[in-house]
Amino acid sequence: MALGVVVALVVAFGITMPFVASPLPRIDAFIPALETAIVIADTTTSALLFAQFSIVPRLALLVLASGYLLTGLIVVPHALSFPGAFAPTGLLGGGAQSTAWLYHLWKVTLPTAVIVYVFLKDADIERDMPQRPPATVIGWSVAAVILIAFGLTWLATAGEWLPRIGVTVSRHFVGALDISLTAVALALLGLRRRSVLDLWLMVMCSTLLLELAMAIIFTDTRYSLGFYASRLYSLIATLFVLLVLLSETTILYAHLARSMMRQRGEREARQTAMDAMAASIVHEMKQPLGAMVANGNAGLRWLARSPPDLAEVSAALKRIVSDGHRASEGITSIRSMLKKDVHGRTSLDMNDLVKDVLKMIELDLHIQGVSVATELRDGLPQLLADRGQLRQVLLNLIMNAIEAMDSVTDRARLMRITSDVLPKSPGVLLTIEDFGPGIDQKNIERIFEPFYTTKSQGMGMGLSICRSIVEAHGGRLIAEPGRLHGLVFRVSLPIDG
Fold this sequence. Notes:
Distance between the termini: 48 Å
Number of domains: 3
Shape: elongated
Number of strands: 7
Number of helices: 13
Order of helices and strands: HHHHHHHHHEHHEEHEEHEE
Radius of gyration: 36 Å
Largest sheet: 5 strands, mixed
Helix content: 55-70%
């Protein structure tokens, strides 16, 4: 996308070039309107970068945010001093020279900040910095930027502190310095690009190069086609990073919201299961435990007699053993009930369930860069099953496949999901295949054991629960090595559950 944007801008630049000197009507409101938009965009971008710094306090982010803020502040006096924008000779005094110098200060500020950002973002200097609250650092940075903006404005408008552009110093010489600085920033970003932000900063620098070339090298008069086009390039360059930051923030927020909803659902499901299990255990255990206590007391009383009635004591002990076996059978029956409960099972289509789960995690697929190829056979038999439990099985297997491909960089991150009918009995076969690093053949069966995990932060219960749910539906869940890479999970389910 970034490359496409740059190519489109270059093509537009080439189409405009033969007509840059063509005079157009003078629109005095053009500069105030355009530069107001630039100020809003630059300060908003600065605010988003400061917000990132408050979360990840890296000095490079602080410098870049300050650079955007300084750029936005310098645009304000440039608009106020522009002849004809608010007054025939501008509002700040100094005439056209003030406007020219403010324009060049404006154009060197952001490339300079980008260059410093590139050198700082890979330097490990944060550990040597004193630890202060991010809000305090941001406050002092904003204050310093405001003072610098006032100082540069005063320097450009008060007196003859700077050489006169076009008289003492060549206009093209100053423009060449601006272009060189921007080109250096672009080259450094290209050599040290690490993130989406770096990529779109490169697009911004490329657009600034086109603007400077058109405004300084190829355009000599105001209110020509080149004058208007170069200013539009300036606005476009300002918007790139802002739009990317907003889109990334939206994606992260959506991902967080989905994760919170998924965690809430899992927490409620676990709570419901635990409540049901606790109630069942209390109900099943209360009677045999009460009988064991009663028989134990009776045995103690028979022992306390003189002489003790050993026959009655023996009978009481036998009843205690019998009640113990009954308690064990009760626990087994509870586990069996939880695994094979048929309440709430309905007729469902496996293909529809796969599509629902993929829709739930489409954001995870996008963020992880995973492509999904589905081959879902039409006319599958309907299954009698618990939709929520099978959805949890599919969600767990698919998310495992996505996480397994997290470290893959030398090939496409692809997941294949196929559905078919069972060859020998009425039922459905679902296959989920990833192209991750896979697992040793000797450990394939172990992944279904409770508390066995290959993840650094896994609990080792997901696949064990998945297999229990599938087996409770009368089916099978197995794992096999992939044909080339990764792992293949096969879920076979009979139609009657």
